[in-house]
Design a protein that fits this description.
single chain, 161 residues, alpha+beta, six-stranded antiparallel beta sheet, 28% strand, globular
């Protein structure tokens, strides 16, 4: 089960929401759906309703995940470069990313539907739960954006409901 009535936000809305959280101007533009794999690394936020059913998924590439997580607590942009080179977020950046992914629930909580919350964030690749992979492969609705955080950098995000 996914979020019924999920209306994909425009890129500017995603940029505005994350920008308010990190206290930075973020520019946005439409992007192709984000596909993570052997060459593209990132993080997947898994959102479930109160009954435990999958409701939505947010996919963020490693550059955006690192930039947003660093901007949240004003870490120097060099920290982002280190994470991208390492192919993963440090423990403190992963914790910050949780806050960024958590605010995205605003897009998935639709009036009249069960409450949706962020269950977990998983690095990708390697493997995703089967229901998550199925939703990414065939979403009911999707939003795709490239975001650039002033003073940091850019990356891509896809929201699936």
């Amino acid at each position: 089960m996914t979020t019924q009535g999920f209306v994909p936000p425009i890129p500017e809305a995603v940029a505005s929401l994350i920008g308010q959280l990190v206290g930075r101007k973020i520019t946005s533009k439409d992007a192709k759906p984000l596909v993570l794999g052997t060459t593209a690394r990132g993080y997947v936020g898994i959102y479930r309703n109160d009954q435990g059913a999958l409701a939505a998924v947010a996919v963020m590439d490693l550059p955006l995940a690192a930039n947003a997580a660093a901007a949240l607590v004003l870490l120097p942009p060099g920290v982002v470069s280190e994470s991208v080179r390492a192919g993963q977020l440090s423990a403190n950046l992963a914790e910050n990313l949780h806050e960024v992914m958590n605010v995205l629930t605003r897009f998935f909580n639709v009036p009249g539907n069960p409450h949706v919350k962020l269950q977990e964030i998983v690095p990708c690749p390697p493997n995703l739960p089967a229901d998550v992979a199925a939703l990414i492969a065939k979403p009911n609705a999707a939003a795709n954006a490239e975001l650039a955080i002033t003073g940091y950098g850019s990356g891509r995000v896809s929201l699936y409901g």
